[in-house]
Sequence to fold (335 residues):
Amino acid sequence: MAGQRKAVKAQTTGDHRGFGKVILFGEHVVVYGATAVVAGVSEYTNCQLRLTKGVPGFKVVDNRPAVPGYKVEKAAEQRKAHELVMNHLSIDLSVDGLEITLAGPLVPSSGIGASASDVVALSRALNEMYALKLNEEEINHSAFVGEGGYHGTPSGVDNTAATFGGLLTYRRAGGVPKFASLPVPTPLYIVVVSTGITASTTKVVGDVRKMKEDKPEWFAGVMSSYDNIVTAASKAINAGDLKGLGALLDTNHLLCRDLTISCPELEDIVTHSKRLGALGAKMSGTGRGGIAVALAASKEDQEKIAAGLTKDCKSARFVWKYSVAPQATKSKAKL
Fold:
């Protein structure tokens, strides 16, 4: 984008959103070429901008309902991410700066794609404030650049889910990320549950890699089993078969357990979720802590599962009710 861009208005008036995300299928095996299924949930972060005349740079007013400690822990990474977006879009803050206000119903926590929802919402707001005329693919790429502030080398899956929402498949082929949307014929009601435990992604990924190296034939069997799961899951989603989808979540969780990426707290949450009527439940993300996700048959069942976990499951530190809206948008997701 040639030249430095200056604001064309004093503040934004639009509703600029970035969605949250959860991994439904494919933790860790995606590293080795398997296809993951990721849900961009309907809950979101939104962003409003206000010009600070004569005050250069930017400041952030973060009103998101984050888990305790999240905002402080992520503040430096967030600033870097915002700087990357500003530089990528050639935003001129040398004379007149910006006040960035973040809010919305998405609760930032480990595993929910909060950083991507932040930079997608910011990119959308800058698009209005500076009349950039970005299309959706360009918003997605701007957020991908910003994600580098949080993740160093992002996969591209979080920002793509945060931009487009709905269900996405993700696979790395020859080092290049490939995305496709999965039409969702009916709403998906999910309960996302945090253990409050943050595991080292580097260590967990390293442990799985060592298992692959030590037991290659066994790991090949895991990959084959997972390929069958994700193929069946795509069919269940297309057919609106929630019961079948739930059973496949259960099966994928068993594979995660075999990979030693579950933990007692996640097992407790999964067991309680099933007892409370979840169609299926599994850990999501890095594992050995982090979050689990449970699929409900309806909004009413979602309420029941969430209430029961909050009341009776000691391992459930935080419980959220999220949804995946029906949509059929196709995205090429060029990064």
The two ends are 16 Å apart (CA to CA). The domain at 16-182 is CATH 3.30.230.10 (Ribosomal Protein S5; domain 2). The first strand starts at residue 16 and ends at 25.
